Amino acid sequence: MSNYEIFVYSWIVIGFLSFPFILRYDAPYGRHTSKNWGPLVDNKIGWIVMELPALIVCPLIVFISDNPVSEITYFFIFLWIIHYFNRSVIFPLRIRTKKKKMPLLIATLAFFFNVINGLVNGIFFGNIKFDYSNSWLFSPEFIVGFIVFITGFIINNWSDSHLISLRKNNDSGYTIPKKGLFKYISCPNFFGEIIEWFGFAVMTWSVAGLAFFLWTFFNLVPRALSHHTWYKKTFPKYPKERKALFPFIL
Ligand code: NDP
């Protein structure tokens, strides 16, 4: 087994082992923020700093690679950059979380998560499978994966935008979202993110994409369940038929 395989399979195993712990605790940021998790930092700055490694690490490894990286591989990195430019720069500037804070511990854990995820994917696309050929564009994996990726990207961004739009002026409270997929589930932004990285895993047919998809699932299923429980507790009139994350299922 190569060093890379040991690295990526260990990362996946750590994900599976962490899942029961992530399920047990409400990740303490946003509505679940708590002072019991140590010192707090500004929410917007936390988002920018903790997400930037993902924007930088993976593309940088690919761009400095000595290997003849193919155009299709660069295309995957282009999609990655679009997602992470939004997540690390645009999203934090748009959110209406003035005066809100998050635990430094959360920002630090997310920072290291993004470094490792960036390494897992950057090393893969820069040094392991850097030569996707043009014919890959016509493979069922690419076509299906790309459609799923774009669908997830649109759902994720539309839903995040809708949540952001619920707050007017300096308001920092919460209301029941009612539009789009919010009619069916409490967290379509997480649903979109999960299918987006599932699409990426299929489109690249890679262990790196699989690792990212699994970790996204492990992070966001528990958070969606926490949010759903919180909505039902906070709003007595919360729609009963609405599920947490997967329409009609969970
Ligand atoms: P949330 O849904 O908790 O919040 C998104 C934004 O909307 C926050 O600014 C939040 O404010 C605000 N908001 C949420 N619900 C309401 C409401 N009912 N009324 C008014 N405002 C609301 O998402 P996260 O902050 O957890 O995640 C943000 C993005 O990051 C998502 O797209 C998610 O998919 C992605 N992400 C990806 C992960 C991965 O592993 N790939 C892990 C974590 C997140 P406030 O912060 O004050 O609650």
Task: Please tag this protein with its features.
250 residues; mainly alpha; two-stranded antiparallel sheet; 2 strands; 65% helix; globular; binds NADPH dihydro-nicotinamide-adenine-dinucleotide phosphate
Q: What would you say this structure looks like, in words?
A:
65% of the residues lie in helices and 2% in strands. It has helices at residues 3-24, 43-63, 71-94, 104-128, 140-165, 188-204, 207-234; strands spanning 40-42, 101-103. A two-stranded antiparallel sheet has the order 1-2. Helix 1 runs parallel beside helix 7, helix 4 (104-128) runs antiparallel to helix 7 and helix 6 (188-204) runs antiparallel to helix 7. It is globular, with a radius of gyration of 19 Å. It starts with a helix and ends in a 16-residue tail after the last helix. The relative contact order is 0.14. Residues 30-31, 95, 97, 100, 156, 160, 163-164, 166-167, 174-175, 177, 189-190, 193, 215-216, 219-220, 223 line the site of NADPH dihydro-nicotinamide-adenine-dinucleotide phosphate. NADPH dihydro-nicotinamide-adenine-dinucleotide phosphate is lined by residues 30-31, 95, 97, 100, 156, 160, 163-164, 166-167, 174-175, 177, 189-190, 193, 215-216, 219-220, 223.
